[in-house]
Amino acid sequence: MIEFPNQPDFPEQHTAVAVGTVNMSQQAIRVLIENATEKASILTIARVAAIQSIKQTSNLIPLHLPGRIIGVQVDFDINVELACLKATLTVQASSNGSIATEALTGLNLALLSVYDMMKDVDRNMMLSGIRLESETDRKSTRLNSSHSGESRM
What we know:
Strand content: 25-35%
Number of helices: 4
Radius of gyration: 16 Å
Helix content: 25-40%
Low-confidence stretches: none
């Protein structure tokens, strides 16, 4: 979890979790696995893209009010058998508004970064199953995971 220190405390803390998948060829998944151990790996760059885009959401989405982000976690799960990469992005904020848009923006940019760096290996990759899995505040949890996506994972 990347945490942003020195943020003032607010009574409301929110967490939003977004998930999505990149389906790719067996050849592409092998390239991704081989690259995962390099210093500037594809997944490391995708994490940076997610964090940067979360911070820029209010500049990308007209009339969107930014939340006070206090933490971001980006996890990747590679499934060799299904030849897909699942991304899970968790955003924590201390503010009075929803942060679902930030979570979905970060997730999309993480997946798009993977696509961009892997497109020479597989131009038929498909982003799928992109959704807000849950959003929580101190009072309640709203789960959206009942929607089925087209992802393999």
